[in-house]
Every structure is written in structure tokens, then in C-alpha cells.
Amino acid sequence: MKSKLLALLSLLFACAVSAQLTITPGAQFSIFSDAKLTLQNTDLVNNGNFLVATTSPVSFTGNASSFIGGDGAIRFFNLEIKKTGDQSVSLQKAISVGNGVFFTSGFLNLNGQRNNKKRTSGAGEQWQFCQ
Question: pLDDT tens digit string along 32-65?
């Protein structure tokens, strides 16, 4: 019995575990001040209101691929991709990035979206990934 339990535990730790942060219709998820959101092996699905009022990056990390999707608008100030190996973050919808996309490791799969980098009325640049 003990050997079966040890075998089961080793299988659980060998697999990449993933999760999903889902913002439902009518809900609001807000990040203020210097708070940093790190989504480790986590998808982001916005069907409500995703408000990032910080210059800290939203980071996608971990050893499993993730995606960004949902029906609501998604705007980041800084987006960081920090996946291990050949793992990626896939776009399933258009997103906007107000300042920059930072690649530490891993990939951003545009998944048919195109990059429209344009200068905005401020001093910075805005990145839009849209269909």
C-alpha cells in the first residue's frame, strides 16, 4: 500500500498543474498601487471588468502553457512572459499593452492576432494585439 501511495504522489508532482482565473459577467477584478499579479500555470478569462491601475507587470509564469481569453476587454500596463521550456501564453482575444511586453523566457502565441504598435497621445507607446 505504501509503495502505491508513493507512486501516486510521484505522478502528481511530475505533472504540470494548471488553473484558471475567471472574472464572471458583472464582476470586477482590480489591481492598484504597486501590487503585482503573477499567474503561475494559470489562464486569464475576463468576462467582466479587469482593471490594472499599476505600473507593475502582470506576469505569466510556470511550466505549463496558458491563455488569455474571455468577452471583456483586457488592458495591461506591462505584460511579462516568464514560461519555462517551450511553454507559451496564447491570445484567444485582442489585448492592449500600454507600456511594454517583457520576455524573460517562453513565448507569446499571437494565435492569429496581429501586432499594431502605435504611438498614443502620451509619451509612451501602446501595443495592441487585435484581429
Answer: 888 899 999 999 999 999 998 888 999 999 999 9
Query: Where do runs of H (alpha helix) occur along 15-121?
Result: none
Domain count, the chain: 1
- Domain with 100 in it: 16-130
Distance CA 113, CA 94 (A): 7
Residues contacting 68, CB < 8 A, separation 6+ = 43, 44, 74, 89, 90, 91, 92, 93, 95
pTM of the model: 0.78
Structural contact between residues 88 and 70, judged by C-beta atoms closer than 8 angstroms: no
10/18 Cα distance (integer angstroms): 17
Among 30, 31, 33, smallest CA distance to 48 is for 30
Q: Is the dihedral of CA 71, 97, 51, 120 positive or negative?
A: negative
Name the one residue in this structure whose C-alpha cell is 489562464.
43
